[in-house]
From TrEMBL:
Residues 224-255 are annotated as: Disordered. This is HEAT repeat domain-containing protein. The lineage of its organism: Bacteria, Bacillati, Actinomycetota, Actinomycetes, Kitasatosporales. SUPFAM superfamilies: ARM repeat (SSF48371). It comes from Streptomyces antioxidans. Residues 245-255 have a biased composition (Basic and acidic residues). Residues 224-243 have a biased composition (Low complexity). Gene3D superfamilies: Leucine-rich Repeat Variant (1.25.10.10).
Length: 255
């Protein structure tokens, strides 16, 4: 277990730091809960340092919660420093904490390099945080959409699902960028773009089902895919216009 700097103050800080680095994750979780329940600026450095090395997801989330309990005036500048850390987990957890704090001023800190981070976990977190913090102006959201579509086709299923969710959460402004990406010569990128657009149009569609349908469309090619879509739309229209029942007078529906 990586030790935490205990030079920040009182014996109480030392005890808390020791608890936050205990072997038992339940002890670490309780320690983080205790710090958050009794906010003390003196624990800021300890919490930030622990975020960078904590191996347990639930404890990390509790550490971020404890940081949100402190004043943003002192927390935000310190968390910002972690965005430049050489440790991928420090960068990822700092981004996660910024999303929890939700201060829109932090949008200016979300650089393109973070959205393109070589570490998938950092990039996934950056995509989600960017959508949370982006200003409401359409040009800002459109610019973010244009940047995010550059990552289509990246990584494993989890990474692609995270990117699709981020683009869907941005809303209608993503449509032009996604439509352009569906014509990408890389079939993986094109399929991911198609799947994301399908999810945007119908969020109830499962990601895996959307990917399979997108692959089919890519295989068909633009013209045949458009024809298939038109035929499907025509069939849906005919179905909606057809009588609700084919029963003749006097016949029972159970026959």
């Amino acid at each position: 277990m990586v030790p935490i700097n205990t030079t920040h103050g009182t014996p109480q800080h030392t005890r808390v730091a020791n608890a936050l680095s205990a072997e038992d994750s339940s002890v670490r979780l309780q320690a983080a809960l205790a710090v958050g329940s009794n906010p003390d600026p003196g624990f800021l450095e300890t919490l930030v340092e622990r975020c960078a090395v904590e191996p347990d997801f639930f404890v990390r989330d509790m550490l971020s919660w404890a940081l949100t309990r402190l004043s943003p005036e002192i927390t935000l500048p310190r968390v910002r420093q972690e965005l430049d850390s050489e440790r991928a987990q420090a960068r990822s957890q700092a981004l996660h904490t910024l999303s929890k704090i939700g201060d829109k001023s932090a949008w200016a800190w979300i650089a393109r390099d973070m959205l393109r981070d070589a570490d998938d976990e950092v990039a996934r977190t950056a995509w989600r945080v960017a959508v949370v913090l982006v200003p409401e102006e359409e040009n800002e959201k459109r610019g973010l959409a244009d940047e995010l579509v550059l990552q289509l086709g990246r990584g494993d299923r989890n990474a692609r699902l995270s990117l699709s969710r981020a683009l869907v959460d941005l809303g209608e402004v993503t449509k032009p960028a996604l439509e352009k990406a569906t014509a990408n010569p890389d079939p993986t990128v094109a399929a991911h773009a198609h799947a994301t657009e399908l999810l945007r149009q119908n969020p109830e569609t499962g990601f895996d089902a959307a990917i399979e349908e997108a692959k089919r469309l890519v295989t068909l090619g633009p013209e045949r895919a458009a024809a298939a879509a038109a035929a499907a739309a025509s069939g849906a229209a005919e179905t909606s216009e057809a009588p609700e029942t084919s029963e003749k007078p006097g016949e029972s529906a159970d026959c």
